[in-house]
Design the sequence.
């Protein structure tokens, strides 16, 4: 089977996902700094986001929370998932648009995970991690796949990842399941809006 035939059955990105790799490097470097210079609780309080956010003096936490992780396993699993989804989406959207969509999904995860849970459930827990943004990317992948724009991605793996992550969030304490859901829903919406506005089906490419 030649290269052109292989591409008809499975999608291989043609270029290195530069923005994705840059995000991963930033997350890993920041985790190394955090792990060596901050105590766990100090790290959560300094960089995490919660319902009682002071907008005038703590607005920066909207970004820092997205790039802060609690453990090697936390940052490792998020970065592996980020690369797995990012290498497809960055080529599809372009680096600049991909980065914007990533940040929007992360912010959506934070809002639902912290603000909604704080207002509705009366909890004031702090949240950190890139999970909301990463789940947003998988929402985009699913939306584009359903619209026929990326039908050659490993769709079953995407569904399996989401199912395992949601199961982990429901069984383990300290997992911000609402943050995951918020990022995923917004990512799904972004993917659908993009697919409808571009109007290009994979079969037409």
Sequence:
């Amino acid at each position: 089977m030649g290269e052109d035939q292989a591409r008809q059955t499975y999608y291989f990105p043609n270029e290195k996902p530069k923005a994705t790799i840059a995000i991963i490097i930033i997350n890993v470097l920041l985790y190394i700094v955090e792990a060596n210079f901050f105590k766990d609780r100090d790290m959560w309080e300094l960089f995490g986001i919660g319902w009682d956010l002071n907008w005038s003096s703590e607005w920066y936490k909207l970004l820092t929370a997205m790039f802060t992780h609690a453990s090697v396993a936390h940052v490792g699993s998020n970065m592996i998932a980020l690369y797995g989804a990012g290498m497809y989406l960055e080529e599809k959207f372009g680096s600049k648009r991909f980065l914007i969509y990533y940040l929007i999904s992360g912010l959506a995860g934070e809002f639902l995970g912290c603000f909604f849970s704080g207002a509705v459930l009366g909890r004031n827990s702090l949240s950190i991690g890139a999970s909301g943004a990463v789940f947003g990317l998988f929402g985009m992948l699913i939306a584009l796949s359903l619209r026929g724009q990326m039908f050659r991605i490993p769709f079953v793996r995407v569904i399996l990842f989401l199912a395992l992550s949601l199961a982990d969030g429901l069984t383990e304490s300290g997992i911000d399941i609402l943050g995951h859901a918020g990022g995923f829903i917004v990512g799904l919406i972004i993917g659908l809006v993009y697919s409808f506005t571009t109007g290009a089906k994979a079969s037409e490419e």
The mean pLDDT is 78. The chain has one domain: 16-198. The longest helix spans residues 95-120.
